[in-house]
Design goal:
The complex is a heterotrimer of chains A (327), B (286) and C (416).
Chain A (H helix, E strand, L loop, with lengths): L6 H7 L8 H26 L8 H17 L7 H20 L5 H20 L1 H4 L5 E2 L14 H24 L1 H11 L1 H6 L4 H27 L1 E2 L6 H14 L6 H19 L3 H15 L4 H16 L5 H10 L2
Helix pairs in contact in A: 1-7, 2-7, 2-10, 2-11, 2-12, 3-4, 3-5, 3-10, 4-10, 8-10, 11-12, 12-13
Chain B lengths: L1 H31 L6 H17 L4 H24 L6 H23 L15 E4 L2 E4 H23 L1 H11 L1 H6 L4 H27 L5 H16 L4 H21 L4 H5 L1 H9 L11
Antiparallel strand pairs in B: 1-2
Chain C lengths: L4 H4 L23 E7 L6 H17 L3 E2 L2 E9 L4 H14 L4 E3 L4 H14 L3 E3 L16 E3 L4 H14 L5 E7 L2 H16 L3 E8 L7 H4 L8 E5 L3 H12 L8 E3 L6 H7 L7 E4 L8 H14 L5 H19 L7 H9 L12 E2 L5 E13 L2 E13 L7 H6 L16
Parallel strand pairs in C: 1-3, 1-4, 4-5, 5-6, 7-8, 7-9, 9-10, 10-11
Antiparallel strand pairs in C: 2-3, 11-13, 12-13, 13-14
Helix pairs in contact in C: 2-11, 3-4, 5-6, 8-9, 11-12
Classes of the chains: A mainly alpha (327), B mainly alpha (286), C alpha/beta (416).
Chain lengths: 327, 286, 416
C-alpha cells in the first residue's frame, strides 16, 4: 500500500471542515492548487533532476489563455480548458527544446530567462493581456449545471482534480517511463549507452510537467476570477521551487507538504509580524541548514531514529524499518 | 542626430550601472559556480546603507565605502556560515541565497521605511553638460568613467596579481587548486565578500540615477543574470562588453519597440545558453 | 519581495488584539469591525502606510469611538498585488467578519475586488484609488469614495493649462497602467476642449526606474509636459528631468501623485515650479485644515498628503454614516444608504457631498509647488468649487462616452 493514497481521502475529508467557514475552505483550495503546481515542478526537480526557475510561465500561459478566451472571445469556461492546456503544452515543448540543450545551472538560467520573457510579454502585450491591469471578470464554469461560486463547491472541484493528479503521479512513478526518467537523473550516460534517448525522455517529462502546471493555472484563474502578470513572475517560480525543496525533492508527498507548510507558515507569521517575508526567509534558511533534503525525508529520518532507539535488532519492526529505508 | 547621440549616451550610462552590478556576480558565479540570487538584494543593501551614511554626513565616497563594507559583511557571513555548510547541494545553495534575499530586502524596509530614498550625487558632479547639441547629466558620464576604471582595476588585479592567478586557477580547475594546497575555502569567502562589496558600491553609485526603493532588488537581479551569462562567467572583459552592449540595446529597444524591449533583453542570454555556453568571453561554460 | 502564491495564500496582519474569535458582532455593544486594505510591502509601502496613518489619526482623535460605539481596526497588507487584494478582502470578510471595508490603495486592486464586494455586500469606502468606472459606468452600489475620480483631479489642471497658462502644445509622459492612462485621458479631454493639443504621448512601464530613454524622446517644441507617476518613480523622474536640462525650459504639469506631500522631501528643490492638479493640499488655507495638518505633523513628523487624507476622510464618512444610523450596522442596506447620503460640511479638503454614483462633489485644486519658510508645499493657486466627476459635461453626456483609457479620448493631434 502506498502512503500516497492517504492524500486523496484526506483532501476529500477536509470537506468536513465546511462548517468552519468559507475562509478555511478557500485556504484549503489555495493549498491544493499550489500543491498541484509544486507536484508538477517536482516532476522536473525531483524525478528528472532538472531545477527550473521558470515553471510559473506554464501556470501563467494557461491562465491567460483561459482569461482571454473567456472574457475577450466569449468562450465558455469549460471549452477554454483544452485550448489552454494545448497552448501550454506547445509552450512547454518549445521551452523544453531550448532549455534541454543545457545542463545543471545552465538549465536553471535558461528556464529563468524564458520565464522572464513570458512575464515581459504578459506585462507589455497590453491588447491581449491587459498589461499591468490584468484581466478580470472570469466566470467559473458550471459543469453539468453545478454552481461553483460557493467556496465548498469549488473546493470539491479542486479536491477532485487534485486526487486525479495524485493518481496519475502514483501510476507514473510506478511505470517504466517513471523508472527511465529516474534513470536519466541518476545515470544519464549509462541510460544513453543502453539505448534510451535521454533528451526525449527529459523533454517528455518537461512537457508533462508544463501541462500539469497549466492545469493548476486553470484552477487558479477560476478561483480568483482574475489574472495579472504576477502569476508569471520570478517570485512565483521561486516560490514553487521553495515549496518543492521545503517539502523534499524526489518524494511524492514532499511538494504537497511543502505547499501547505509554506502557505500556512506565511499565514501564521503574518499574524504576528509585519516582517513575515523576512520570517519566511529565515524559515527557508532553517530548513536548508537543518533538513536540506526537505521536510518529508527529514522527518522520516527523525522518525526512523526514534524508532531504532526503541527496537531490538531482528524484530519485525526492525525488518519493516529496513525495508522502509531501502525505499 | 542628437537623438541618436543622446540615446547612445543613455545606453552607455545604463551599461556602466550594469557593470557595477554584475562584476561581482560574475566573479562569484565563475569561481564558486553559485548563482548568487541575493545579489540584487546586496545591491539594494548598498544603496540603502550608502543613503543612510550620506544622511549622517559621510560624504559620497564615504557612503560608497560604507555601502561596500556593509554588503561585504553580509556576503561574507552568508558564504562562510551558510553556503559553505551546504557544499555540494546546489539546490540548497540556491534556496539559501533566495532566503537571504528575502531577509535583506525586508530588513531594508523595516529599517528605512517604504518611501523611496533619494541619493544625491556629489555636488561637483551634479551639473548638466552640453555635448554636441545635447544636454546630458554629468553624473551619468561619471558612472561610465567609474565603471571603466573599476573594470580596469579588476582586470589588472586578476591578471597581474598572485591572488588573481589563484582566482583564475580556481575558476578553471577547482580540484587542482585544492590539490596544490591552496586554501580554496578561504578564497571562496574572500571572493564572495569582494563580489558582494562590488554590488553594494554599485548600489550606492547607481543611487543618484535609480534611488533606493523597495523592489530594487527584484528589478536588478535578472539584468545581472543576462549580463553575466551573455558576457561569460568569470570574465571581467565579458562583463564589460556585455554590460555596455545590453545597456545600449535595452535603451534603443525601449525607444523603438517599447512593448517588446524587456522580452528582447533575454534573447542574447537564451542564445548564449543554447548555442555557446561560454558566452562571449567566458573561460568556462555555464 | 518574492511571492505571489504566498501572498495570495492569505496574509493578514491584525494589529489590534483581535476579539477572541468572536463570530457574531451584531450586538450594539460589540465594537464595529473595520477592515483596512492597504499596502505595507513593496514599492507602494510608503503611500500605504500613510493611508493607514490617516485613518488611525482620525480614530485616535475620536478615541476609537465613532457615534458612541467602539471600533476595531483590522489591517491587511495587499502588497499592491490585485490577486492578493482579493485574497485579503476575503480574509477580512470571511475570517475577521468586518462590517465595513476601507481602501484599497490602487485602482487595479479596486477593480480586482469589485465583483467580490458586490457578492458579499459589505460596504466599501474607497480611501485612495480613483478608478473612474467604479463610480461611472459600472458603479458598485456597495462602494462610496472618500477621494474622487481620476478626472476630478486632472480636469481642473487641463482647464488651467489651456485658459490661464495659455499652453497650446503638450506632451504627456505617464506610467502605463490604469491610473496613468486615466490621468492622461482626463487631462487631454479638458485641455483639448479648451483649445489645446496633445502632440505626443509617451508611456512608461510601471517597473521603470531609469527614465533617460523617455526623457530623451520628449519633443523640444512643446509648451509643457504633463506627467503622471507615483511613489519612487515620481522622485526619480523629476530629478532626471532636471538633470537632462529640461527644468526651466519646459514646464511640468503633474498629477497630484507626483508631488504628494510624502514625496516632497525627497524631490526637494527639483520640484519647485511644478503645477499640479489635486483634490487636497496640506497648504489649503482653512482653519480645519490647518488644525488637521498641525496635529498630523505632530504625530507623524511629516505633512499629510493625498493618501493620509484619503484615510482620514474615509473615517469622517464612516463617522457621519454611523451618526445617522445611531451606530448600527446590522441593517446593511440602511447603513449603506446612510453612507451614501452622508454630507461633510467641513473637512480638511473642504465641504463634501456624494453624488448619485457614490463619488464626492468637492473642491478641485490647482497647486504650485514651492518652498515657503524652508518648507516644501503645494500652494493652492486656484480652487474649483463643487466639482463633480463629470466636470461640466453632466452625467448623461459624460457616460455616453467610453471610459478614459489609452484609447479614449482618441489622440487626434499626435505628431511624429
Amino acid at each position: 500500500m502506498n502512503r500516497w493514497l492517504i492524500l486523496i481521502p484526506s483532501a476529500l475529508a477536509l470537506l468536513a471542515i465546511a462548517h468552519l467557514g468559507d475562509f478555511y475552505i478557500n485556504f484549503a483550495s489555495r493549498i491544493l492548487i499550489a500543491a498541484i503546481f509544486a507536484l508538477s515542478l517536482n516532476l522536473l526537480v525531483g524525478y528528472a533532476g532538472l531545477m527550473s526557475l521558470g515553471h510559473s510561465a506554464f501556470f501563467g500561459v494557461a491562465g491567460y489563455c483561459m482569461a482571454w478566451l473567456i472574457v475577450t472571445r466569449g468562450w465558455s469556461p469549460v471549452a477554454a480548458i483544452p485550448a489552454a492546456l494545448l497552448l501550454t503544452g506547445i509552450a512547454a515543448g518549445l521551452f523544453g527544446l531550448l532549455a534541454l540543450r543545457a545542463k545543471g545551472i545552465g538549465f536553471l538560467m535558461i528556464t529563468l530567462a524564458l520565464g522572464q520573457m513570458a512575464w515581459g510579454l504578459a506585462m507589455r502585450w497590453v491588447s491581449v493581456t491587459g498589461g499591468d491591469n490584468g484581466i478580470r471578470g472570469i466566470a467559473r464554469p458550471t459543469p453539468f449545471g453545478v454552481d461553483l461560486t460557493t467556496a465548498t463547491a469549488f473546493y470539491a472541484l479542486v479536491a477532485t482534480v487534485f486526487s486525479l493528479v495524485c493518481l496519475v503521479l502514483y501510476w507514473f512513478t510506478r511505470s517504466p517511463f517513471g523508472a527511465s526518467l529516474r534513470g536519466t537523473r541518476d545515470q544519464p550516460r549509462r541510460m544513453s549507452a543502453l539505448g534510451f534517448d535521454v533528451t526525449l525522455i527529459r523533454w517528455s517529462a518537461f512537457v508533462a510537467a508544463g501541462c500539469m502546471a497549466g492545469l493548476a493555472g486553470v484552477l487558479d484563474v477560476y478561483f480568483n476570477r482574475f489574472i495579472d502578470p504576477s502569476v508569471l513572475s520570478l517570485q512565483s517560480s521561486a516560490e514553487g521551487l521553495l515549496m518543492v525543496i521545503v517539502g523534499g525533492v524526489d518524494v511524492l508527498l514532499g511538494p504537497v507538504v511543502g505547499a501547505a507548510a509554506v502557505l500556512i507558515f506565511a499565514q501564521v507569521a503574518s499574524d504576528y509580524t509585519e516582517h513575515w517575508t523576512a520570517a519566511l526567509g529565515i524559515l527557508f534558511l532553517v530548513i536548508v541548514v537543518l533538513m536540506p533534503d526537505g521536510l518529508v525525508p527529514g522527518v522520516r529520518r527523525l522518525w526512523t531514529k526514534l524508532c531504532t532507539l526503541q527496537t531490538a535488532p531482528g524484530t519485525l519492526a526492525n525488518q519493516l524499518l529496513k525495508r522502509g529505508k531501502a525505499r | 542626430m542628437s537623438f541618436w547621440l543622446l540615446q547612445t549616451l543613455n545606453g552607455l550610462a545604463f551599461g556602466g550601472l550594469l557593470f557595477l552590478l554584475s562584476a561581482g556576480f560574475s566573479l562569484i558565479f565563475g569561481l564558486m559556480r553559485i548563482p548568487n540570487l541575493a545579489h540584487g538584494a546586496l545591491f539594494m543593501l548598498g544603496a540603502y546603507v550608502g543613503a543612510a551614511a550620506l544622511q549622517v554626513g559621510a560624504g559620497f565616497w564615504g557612503g560608497a565605502l560604507a555601502a561596500g563594507l556593509a554588503a561585504a559583511l553580509v556576503g561574507g557571513v552568508m558564504e562562510r556560515y551558510l553556503l559553505r555548510r551546504l557544499g555540494a547541494n546546489e539546490n540548497a545553495q540556491v534556496l539559501a541565497t533566495i532566503g537571504v534575499s528575502f531577509i535583506v530586502a525586508d530588513a531594508m524596509v523595516a529599517i528605512w521605511g517604504g518611501d523611496p530614498r533619494t541619493i544625491p550625487a556629489p555636488d561637483y558632479l551634479r551639473a548638466t553638460v552640453e555635448l554636441a547639441g545635447v544636454s546630458f547629466p554629468l553624473y551619468r558620464l561619471a558612472v561610465v568613467a567609474i565603471a571603466c576604471l573599476v573594470a580596469a582595476l579588476l582586470w589588472l588585479a586578476i591578471d597581474r596579481t598572485r591572488i588573481g592567478a589563484v582566482l583564475r586557477a580556481g575558476v578553471d580547475d577547482p580540484q587542482m587548486v585544492r590539490g596544490v594546497g591552496i586554501p580554496i575555502l578561504r578564497l571562496f569567502t574572500l571572493v564572495f565578500s569582494f563580489g558582494a562589496a562590488l554590488a553594494g558600491v554599485g548600489g550606492l553609485l547607481a543611487g543618484p540615477i535609480l534611488s533606493a526603493y523597495p523592489g530594487l532588488d527584484i528589478d536588478m537581479l535578472p539584468l545581472a543574470l543576462i549580463v553575466v551569462i551573455f558576457g561569460g562567467i568569470g570574465s571581467i572583459l565579458g562583463a564589460v562588453v556585455a554590460s555596455f552592449f545590453i545597456g545600449i540595446v535595452y535603451t534603443f529597444t525601449r525607444v523603438l519597440v517599447p512593448d517588446l524591449s524587456y522580452v528582447l533583453l533575454f534573447v542574447p542570454m537564451v542564445i548564449v545558453l543554447v548555442v555557446r555556453p561560454r558566452g562571449l568571453f567566458g573561460r568556462v561554460a555555464v | 519581495m518574492f511571492f505571489s502564491f504566498v501572498k495570495r495564500a492569505a496574509v493578514n496582519t491584525a494589529i489590534v488584539a483581535f476579539a477572541a474569535g468572536s463570530v457574531s458582532a451584531g450586538a450594539q455593544t460589540d465594537p464595529i469591525r473595520i477592515g483596512l486594505l492597504t499596502i505595507k510591502t513593496g514599492p507602494f509601502a510608503g503611500p500605504g502606510q500613510q493611508m493607514e496613518n490617516g485613518l488611525r489619526h482620525l480614530l485616535k482623535e475620536r478615541n476609537y469611538t465613532l457615534a458612541g460605539r467602539k471600533v476595531e481596526l483590522f489591517v491587511a497588507d495587499t502588497a499592491g498585488q490585485p490577486a492578493m487584494a482579493r485574497t485579503k478582502t476575503q480574509d477580512l470578510v470571511e475570517r475577521d467578519k468586518v462590517q465595513v471595508l476601507v481602501g484599497p490603495l490602487t485602482s487595479t486592486e479596486a477593480l480586482a475586488i469589485d465583483d467580490y464586494v458586490r457578492d458579499v455586500k459589505v460596504p466599501l469606502i474607497s480611501s485612495s484609488n480613483l478608478a473612474e468606472d467604479m463610480t461611472q459606468r459600472h458603479p458598485n452600489p456597495w462602494m462610496v469614495r472618500a477621494t474622487g475620480s481620476t478626472g476630478q483631479v486632472v480636469h481642473p489642471l487641463g482647464m488651467y493649462a489651456a485658459t490661464t497658462l495659455h499652453y497650446k502644445r503638450i506632451a504627456t509622459v505617464a506610467s502605463d497602467f490604469a491610473f496613468g492612462q486615466e490621468a492622461v485621458a482626463g487631462f487631454q479631454r479638458v485641455f483639448e476642449d479648451n483649445g489645446g493639443q496633445v502632440v505626443q504621448k509617451l508611456w512608461v512601464p510601471t517597473a521603470a526606474a531609469d527614465f533617460s530613454a523617455y526623457i530623451a524622446q520628449i519633443r523640444k517644441d512643446v509648451d509643457a509636459v504633463f506627467i503622471s507617476f507615483s511613489g519612487a518613480s515620481s522622485v526619480a523622474f523629476v530629478r532626471q528631468y532636471n538633470e537632462y536640462g529640461l527644468k526651466g525650459k519646459v514646464p511640468l504639469l503633474a498629477m497630484h501623485s507626483v508631488v504628494d506631500e510624502g514625496l516632497l522631501g525627497g524631490i526637494g528643490d527639483d520640484g519647485i515650479g511644478i503645477i499640479s492638479g489635486g483634490i487636497y493640499s496640506a497648504a489649503i488655507d482653512t482653519p480645519t485644515n490647518k488644525n488637521y495638518v498641525a496635529s498630523y505633523r505632530k504625530e507623524f513628523g511629516v505633512d499629510p498628503g493625498f493618501y493620509a487624507t484619503g484615510g482620514y476622510v474615509a473615517g469622517l464618512f464612516l463617522e457621519g454614516a454611523l451618526k445617522s444610523t445611531n451606530a448600527s450596522v446590522d441593517d446593511k442596506e440602511a447603513f449603506l444608504k446612510a453612507l451614501r447620503s452622508t454630507k461633510l460640511a467641513d473637512s480638511p479638503r473642504g465641504p463634501l457631498t456624494l453624488d448619485a454614483y457614490g463619488n464626492p462633489v468637492c473642491n478641485g485644486y490647482v497647486r504650485k509647488t514651492e518652498r515657503k519658510d524652508g518648507h516644501m508645499q503645494n500652494t493652492v493657486v486656484k480652487v474649483f468649487p463643487d466639482e463633480s466627476q463629470f466636470w461640466t459635461y453632466g452625467p448623461k453626456q459624460f457616460l455616453a462616452n467610453p471610459v478614459y483609457s489609452r484609447d479614449f479620448p482618441p489622440s487626434r493631434y499626435l505628431e511624429n
